[in-house]
From TrEMBL:
<dbReference type="GO" id="GO:0003677">
    <property type="term" value="F:DNA binding"/>
</dbReference>
<dbReference type="InterPro" id="IPR036388">
    <property type="entry name" value="WH-like_DNA-bd_sf"/>
</dbReference>
<dbReference type="GO" id="GO:0005634">
    <property type="term" value="C:nucleus"/>
</dbReference>
<dbReference type="InterPro" id="IPR009057">
    <property type="entry name" value="Homeodomain-like_sf"/>
</dbReference>
<feature type="DNA-binding region" description="H-T-H motif">
    <location>
        <begin position="40"/>
        <end position="60"/>
    </location>
</feature>
<dbReference type="InterPro" id="IPR007889">
    <property type="entry name" value="HTH_Psq"/>
</dbReference>
<keyword id="KW-0539">Nucleus</keyword>
<keyword id="KW-0238">DNA-binding</keyword>
<dbReference type="Pfam" id="PF04218">
    <property type="entry name" value="CENP-B_N"/>
</dbReference>
<feature type="domain" description="HTH psq-type">
    <location>
        <begin position="13"/>
        <end position="64"/>
    </location>
</feature>
<protein>
    <submittedName>
        <fullName>Tigger transposable element-derived protein 1-like protein</fullName>
    </submittedName>
</protein>
Length: 114
């Protein structure tokens, strides 16, 4: 006898949408469309977003614009740090020492490494 409840969320007609990250480019596109005069519901439908999401983006426009000015022109998804030559040399030597100790089966602890 089948149960009365659906087996998964896809069978529920009013299930919530799955969360997804919205890129900075998409947020800027929402703001551009809003500034042109397009309605929130039209923007949401065109971009496949909830109206409440578009409204939140509109309300946070100052933060989003500030973030877009700070972001790199290529909109890099990850940041890189530049290490000094001294730090690179030290890390390379530490790696060689760790490999040597490992090959000799010497037990290592954090205090020994530090």
């Amino acid at each position: 006898m089948p149960g009365k409840r659906p087996l998964n969320a896809a069978d529920i007609p009013h299930a919530k949408r799955e969360r997804k990250a919205i890129t900075l480019d998409l947020k800027l596109e929402v703001l551009r469309r809003f500034e042109v005069g397009e309605k929130l519901s039209q923007i949401a439908k065109a971009l496949g977003l909830a109206v409440s999401t578009v409204a939140t983006i509109r309300d946070n426009r100052e933060k989003i614009k500030a973030n877009s000015q700070v972001a790199t022109p290529s909109r890099a998804s990850r940041l890189t740090r530049h290490r000094s030559a001294l730090m690179e040399t030290m890390e390379r030597l530490l790696h060689v020492w760790l490999e040597d100790q490992s090959q000799r089966n010497v037990p290592l602890s954090v205090t020994v490494i530090q």
